[in-house]
Specification:
This protein is α/β, with parallel strands linked by helices. A hairpin with a 4-residue loop joins strand 3 and strand 4.
């Protein structure tokens, strides 16, 4: 649903800075062979990307495809990650505003994707709520694009 929302925002506003890498090559079918078809297509899509947009929630599952995307994107291509938390709409939902730290309930979500949790120190990761204006700002932020990325670390927009 969140991915489709980005596509809808882009469809309604051509200035919305979302580039759909999933539209850049062949469709992937669930019944396709993993090694011969799915994995190469995922890698092709990732190699055409400037960052990873990860929607991370309490119901996120660590599927083979998501593990491949995260592992190849971060560890092979050095793609920065913009982490959107769909269950939270305000910066203060994910950030402790007084100490300027990421809340523990957000860090706990990282356990849903161990490959992300274990690899995120290799690239800059921007943690944001599910709010159109904040997502738009993040997608346009050159600090979180592969060719102009900042130093690895956990980042967020202050409250």
């Amino acid at each position: 649903m969140s991915y489709n929302l980005l596509r809808a925002w882009k469809g309604a506003d051509s200035s919305f800075p979302f580039i759909d890498s999933h539209n850049k090559n062949y469709n992937v079918r669930d019944g396709s062979d993993w090694e011969k078809t799915l994995k190469p297509r995922i890698r092709d899509r990732i190699s055409k990307s400037k960052n990873i947009i990860l929607f991370l929630s309490s119901i996120t599952k660590s599927s083979r495809a998501i593990r491949e995307e995260i592992d190849y994107g971060i560890n092979s291509n050095g793609l920065p990650v913009i982490v959107v938390y769909p269950e939270y709409s305000e910066k203060s939902d994910i950030i402790n505003c007084s100490s300027e730290t990421i809340k523990q309930k957000i860090k706990n979500l990282w356990d849903n994707l161990p490959i992300f949790r274990n690899s995120m120190g290799e690239v800059p990761t921007l943690h944001i709520p599910n709010k159109k204006s904040v997502i738009k700002s993040a997608l346009g932020n050159k600090d979180f694009m592969v060719n102009t990325k900042r130093e690895p670390g956990e980042y967020f927009y202050k409250c």
